[in-house]
Amino acid sequence: MAQPPPYIELYESGELERRAARLEARLEECDICPRRCGANRLKNETGSCNAGKLVAVASVCAHHGEEPVLSGSRGSGTIFFGNCNMRCVYCQNHQISQDPDRQRSNQVSPSRLANRMLYLQNELNCHNINLVSPTHYIPQILQAIFEAVPQGLRLPLVYNTNAYDDVETLAELEGVISIYLPDLKYADSNLAARLSDVPHYVPTARAAIKEMYRQTGELELDEDDIAVSGLIIRHLILPNDLAGSEASVKWIAGELSRSVPISLMAQYTPRHRALEVPLLSRSINAAEYRRVINLLDVLGMENGWLQDDSSQDYYLPDFNREDHPFERG
């Protein structure tokens, strides 16, 4: 029988409730993410992430297109949160991340979010709860977990993030999150500021990922090869080496471990405002993809996943679909 996730023990000890209360108090002068914008979100002032007191839930579904250790046979129970603390000009989820007016109609309470988690577990029978772009809603998410546990929530939680996370905030998630899934986007903070409107991305994301690795360590799988704990790092290759892939991969190998799984993504295609940036106005080519794969081989980094040539079409969502953003009609 599978071990219950550690947040059950945190709930039973009262620690989960205390953490949720501490995080909620921080919303009064919001410092949840590295922007530390100071908005009073308890009074529904919107922060720099365009989020207020309630949670924008854009989509809830069983996602079969995540890494195999997450999707398995029954799918990863994915909750796509609206709004974001970054402003990537090429964001594939721009329909929900950068359209705050639309996301107001998707706002729910933590209690309703708890119900969505239980739906993924009990009705869709997913392997895990996959929280996509959760950074700006961490206090509400912990409250939802606190409410869902006595109703039977038992699935491991996946924290699926852009890695622009605050280490102090992440510390409150120790023992709550089983699997961290950060996307290491850049190796140059100046490019991050230009393309994603965030300062100091590189040291911030690297510090956050180190904290994630400290909490969960190496990836562990169950008898069915489904992830139960650990770190997986995603890296989206951008054209013209704008992502600084070589520097990022070498940092992972040198500062974390060569055994950390890397999910190497070839799915980039110009979306949102990418066509306004000439260096981003095309998909990556085979040579760019092969160069990063060869680097992984040279460094002896054998754990992880590669996307095939169809990824540019297959992995792009459409959140105008009411049922499932990744399933074509």
Automatic annotation (TrEMBL):
Task: Return the PANTHER family for the record.
Answer: FORMATE LYASE ACTIVATING ENZYME, PUTATIVE (AFU_ORTHOLOGUE AFUA_2G15630)-RELATED
Q: Which domain of life is it from?
A: Bacteria
Q: Residues in domain Radical SAM core?
A: 79-192
The organism's taxonomy opens as: Bacteria, Bacillati, Chloroflexota, Dehalococcoidia, Dehalococcoidales
Cite the InterPro entries for this sequence.
Aldolase_TIM, MJ0674-like, Pyrv-formate_lyase-activ_prd, rSAM, rSAM_sf
Name of protein: Radical SAM protein
Segment forming the signal sequence: none
Any idea which UniProt keywords this protein has?
Iron, Iron-sulfur, Metal-binding, S-adenosyl-L-methionine
